TrEMBL record:
<feature type="signal peptide">
    <location>
        <begin position="1"/>
        <end position="19"/>
    </location>
</feature>
<feature type="active site" description="Proton donor">
    <location>
        <position position="334"/>
    </location>
</feature>
<feature type="disulfide bond">
    <location>
        <begin position="420"/>
        <end position="428"/>
    </location>
</feature>
<keyword id="KW-0325">Glycoprotein</keyword>
<dbReference type="InterPro" id="IPR029033">
    <property type="entry name" value="His_PPase_superfam"/>
</dbReference>
<feature type="disulfide bond">
    <location>
        <begin position="194"/>
        <end position="451"/>
    </location>
</feature>
<feature type="disulfide bond">
    <location>
        <begin position="58"/>
        <end position="383"/>
    </location>
</feature>
<dbReference type="Pfam" id="PF00328">
    <property type="entry name" value="His_Phos_2"/>
</dbReference>
<keyword id="KW-1015">Disulfide bond</keyword>
<feature type="disulfide bond">
    <location>
        <begin position="240"/>
        <end position="254"/>
    </location>
</feature>
<keyword id="KW-0732">Signal</keyword>
<protein>
    <recommendedName>
        <fullName>Phytase A</fullName>
    </recommendedName>
</protein>
<keyword id="KW-0378">Hydrolase</keyword>
<dbReference type="InterPro" id="IPR033379">
    <property type="entry name" value="Acid_Pase_AS"/>
</dbReference>
<feature type="active site" description="Nucleophile">
    <location>
        <position position="69"/>
    </location>
</feature>
<dbReference type="InterPro" id="IPR016274">
    <property type="entry name" value="Histidine_acid_Pase_euk"/>
</dbReference>
<dbReference type="GO" id="GO:0016158">
    <property type="term" value="F:inositol hexakisphosphate 3-phosphatase activity"/>
</dbReference>
Amino acid sequence: MSLFIGGCLLVFLQASAYGGVVQATFVQPFFPPQIQDSWAAYTPYYPVQAYTPPPKDCKITQVNIIQRHGARFPTSGAGTRIQAAVKKLQSAKTYTDPRLDFLTNYTYTLGHDDLVPFGALQSSQAGEETFQRYSFLVSKENLPFVRASSSNRVVDSATNWTEGFSAASHHVLNPILFVILSESLNDTLDDAMCPNAGSSDPQTGIWTSIYGTPIANRLNQQAPGANITAADVSNLIPLCAFETIVKETPSPFCNLFTPEEFAQFEYFGDLDKFYGTGYGQPLGPVQGVGYINELLARLTEMPVRDNTQTNRTLDSSPLTFPLDRSIYADLSHDNQMIAIFSAMGLFNQSSPLDPSFPNPKRTWVTSRLTPFSARMVTERLLCQRDGTGSGGPSRIMRNGNVQTFVRILVNDALQPLKFCGGDMDSLCTLEAFVESQKYAREDGQGDFEKCFD
């Protein structure tokens, strides 16, 4: 298997699977789920549920994928904060807990921003999985149409996705990265077009002071003189995730925290996304409107109608925005995917997330929404009731004609789609789905203008 990172080619050997097709075998977890699945946005991808094939009376006719880039180094800003917290721990003259002894000879060696080998593998596996699941939709004349936002880690994820897809087909079908959307221009795959949007700092600050203070007090007892603060805790816990993913072996920083404390960090990440570009941010959902309008155009095979983030020059050309493909794959960022979920109506909560108390029944859990290499898949289907399928009454056709439906999976978990009348198979008619996206079709109902007022 060939993987690309920063333009460099890495070669890995991978065993073939059934039928001679390369099967994506997801890397085994580094830790038990109660720890690894509590790394919030730094959790490695995993299927939240097993993929559910469509009902027997339906056939898939189109697939739209939006996927987060694979695992990366910390961003430059996060890396700076992480190193500052580590230096505090290393400033202690002695350690009262042997779990900190490794710090005596510890050196921070992580890079910043770019994709790491594990992340490249995740993206390649996603391409393989797409071929295995949807190969009946493609041919040499109808290859997946692939776009990416212009960050290096996103571009590298896209090229690894195409390589994985190609490898799974024994290089018979070779899609390419066709469009790179500049993040300095109109871009529906990045959340950089709303300068007036607020941040999640007020909410994450409240929770940090609640959960981080006891942990900081304990660390200061174990490392006298370190003067660790609650804010430092939210920078040290991610180092467990980053080092483990980069080095592909458990980081010693993971031993400094309990499963309960990792769960508390997960809620920190949940608040960050909810109040960053999610439902809790007044100008969060509007940042997902442009992609939704592109999705509607593909599903209906009609020109894009949008006055928000879309690049109208690219979207008006059949070369750079075709409407006749069966598979579309867009590589993006987690914050942008959160905005899209919120604009669409997915994972809506009965009440906003409380910055001081996690609701154990919440469906807004970042590790399940946007782990590294997260993906949302929108399938378009033709369905006809034949008396033996599992379809509900909404699929009884007039005069026996087929009808077009959509269903949406996030990390393989079928979404109920209550906002468009989803039936027992989580299917909405295409017409009902389009109608449900009024917020996007009306360009954010005035919210987009507020981004610049």
